[in-house]
Amino acid sequence: MRSLRSSIATAISLFLAGLVIAATPGSAHAADVYRYWAYYTVTDGAFVTQETGPAGATPADGSVEGYRYAAPADFKKPNLPRADLATVNFDSVCGDKEAAAGEKRVAVLIDYGVEADANGAEVPQPEALCAVVPEKANGLQTLQAVAPDLRTKKSSFGPLLCGISGYPATGCADEKADAGTPADEGNVEFATASSDDKGASDSSKANDDKDDSNTGVLLGVGGLIVVLLAGGFYLSRRNRSAA
Q1: H helices of 40-97, where?
Q2: In the chain, how many domains are there?
Q3: 3-state secondary structure of 64
Q4: CA-based R_g, the chain, Å
Q5: pLDDT tens digits, residue range 137-175?
Q6: Which domain holds residue 147?
Q7: Is 105 in the same domain as 191?
Q8: Do 22 and 7 share a structural domain?
Q9: Of 49, 68, 39, nearest in space to 181 by CA
């Protein structure tokens, strides 16, 4: 029974992570496999398939999120991000970053998959990036802070993740593969480039623009008050002179 529940949970989580197959009767069969982005978190040093898409999850400060593009041949053996979690972890990715009050740090591991799933496109190098985002940021917002060029698609379950950093350029879990991607692929190197936290930067810029706007309004009001006071003083002196 536990094995059955686990299989059902895994299938549901992969569906919500991006698998949407619109098939009419007789148009699909058991061997059909599709390429899509799957969403994981790291617990006790291992990747765990999430039962919701990134928009429905809120990572905690100090957590590690993982994304992998592949065409799973077997839901029981998902294609995990190929990171060695003994070395690619929160400390190695976010250890040199600081979070201000109201912010959190989240390590984001992005595995763009293998050439067999690229459909002729160039496969980007896997990345390990540190997102510094507001505490309430969900998984999708956290991902967007380090990979702003996201493609999503609306669904009844919320936004579906279609592309990260422009990869793939088209499609959203509807790219049919000739064969499933092998699950046991070994580890690969992840680039650990520092993130400028573009999401937070944009938020800060918006706040700065708002502050500048408020300052302009205050200066305008202050100038108006000075003019009114000066006018009142002038009229007062004129009335006394006339008297």
Answers
A1: 90-94
A2: 2
A3: strand
A4: 26
A5: 999 999 999 999 999 999 888 899 999 999 999 999 888
A6: 2-195
A7: yes
A8: yes
A9: 68
